[in-house]
Amino acid sequence: MTHRILFVCLGNICRSPAAEGVFRARAPHHRTDSAGTSGWHIGDPPYGPMQKAARARNIDLSDLRARQFMAEDFQRFDLIIGMDADNIAGIEALRPEGNHTPVCLLTDFAPDTGADHVPDPYYTRDFVGALDLIEAAVEGLEAHLRGRQ
Length: 149
Ligand code: 4NP
What we know:
This protein has helices spanning 15-26, 48-55, 73-76, 85-92, 121-124, 127-147, and strands spanning 4-9, 31-36, 79-82, 103-105. The longest helix has 21 residues, at 127-147. It has a single domain (4-148), classed as Rossmann fold. α1 links the parallel β1 and β2 (31-36). By secondary structure, it is α/β, with parallel strands linked by helices. The protein is globular, with a radius of gyration of 14 Å. Strands 2-1-3-4 form a four-stranded parallel beta sheet, sandwiched between helices. It binds 4-nitrophenyl phosphate. 4-nitrophenyl phosphate binds at residues 9-15, 40, 120, 122.
């Protein structure tokens, strides 16, 4: 079964494009996209240091371009995944009345890590640590989706 999954962060240039890139490399049969709750980087490619860290793992993010999360995304996707609690608040603020699309944290799929959010590498500069956590959570997400087939 093909799922439509949207990854969301603040800028859509670090965490959510990385999650999209990791996920689409592992599970290309699903439909994926990513977006930012802010409009600060609309049209920009993923941040250089994030692209570099991903490329070191054979994950190419160069075709991705930032866009802003919008209310219509609740209809366009089956599952919306944020990176931290602020992202979830920004997403929920646009939920149309009567819409029940599930919204969750990426770290919900990586309970063994003990993490309750993906720290923003734009500020921490820990691009490798962010990718480690994203890869662990994407593996959990894949297992979750397989279980729902
Ligand atoms: P992201 O990281 O939400 O993981 O894409 C950020 C990138 C840029 C900014 C904030 C967060 N910024 O303030 O420009």
